[in-house]
Amino acid sequence: MKYLLLVTLILLPITGSRAQSVSPDTAPQISVVRFSWSKERVGWERDPFSGPIENFDEMRVRARNEKRISDAKKGGNSAEVSKAERDARSDDALISEIHKNTPARYGFVYKASFQNTGTKTIKLIDWDYVFYDSVNQNELGRREFSSVENISPGKIKEFKFFIGRPPTRTISVDALNKNERNNVGETVIIVRVEYSDGSSWQHP
């Protein structure tokens, strides 16, 4: 089975390897501490911290206008300063309109924290983030991940994955709807665990 591997929010496809010793009948000695998902606006449309993100051409327009205003002020020509400032405001308004009319796109962050409750160091976890209809319990979507990082006995580690696919088909990638979570249940299933000694656990 192929999984999506993300280390520090970098998405890479991989195929999980099989260890020599598989123990499907015993508990994996790992627990899911918490899990969550969120929708994040992506692309150059708007950065919530720094305002609109400009492309190279837009930055060049702004730089040109700033130089025109500066040169006009140095020359002491008030009429030229006013004209340069009007042109700059016009260009700013046009850039803002372009950004406003660009459709938003969203990506999705999936998080899960696991605790190693056993005595062996974990080196890999294959896990599924499953979404289901909370009314009839039918599965609505499933995202499969592999987390490759050592977790020592007793330790807790959180993994984050950023992908473009929404949890279910009912959740839009183009809009933000506060009601999208209604009647959507979620859970995390541990599929496979590999240990540093070469042994592994496989979900029955």
Poorly predicted tracts of residues: 1-25, 44-54
Number of helices: 2
Rg over C-alpha atoms, rounded to the nearest angstrom: 25 Å
Q: Between the first and last Cα atoms, what is the distance in angstroms?
A: 15 Å
Strands in their spatial order, largest beta sheet: 2-1-7-6-9-10-3
Helices and strands, in N-to-C order? EEEEHHEEEEEE
Strand segment tally: 10
Structural class: alpha+beta
In CATH, the architecture of the largest domain is Sandwich
Give the overall average pLDDT: 77
The largest pleated sheet is described as:
7 strands, mixed
* CATH fold topology of the largest domain: Immunoglobulin-like
Strand content is: 35-45%
Shape: elongated
Helix content: 10-25%
Name of the CATH class of the largest domain: Mainly Beta
Number of domains: 2
Describe the structure.
- This protein has helices at residues 56-75, 78-100; strands at 2-7, 10-15, 21-22, 30-42, 105-116, 122-133, 139-151, 156-163, 184-195, 199-202.
- With 204 residues, the protein is an alpha+beta fold.
- The chain has two domains: 2-43 and 105-202, Immunoglobulin-like (Sandwich); 56-100.
- The strands form two sheets. A seven-stranded mixed β-sheet has the order 2-1-7-6-9-10-3, with no helix packed on it. Strands 4-5-8 form a three-stranded antiparallel β-sheet, with no helix packed on it.
- α1 (56-75) packs antiparallel against α2 (78-100).
- The two termini are 15 Å apart.
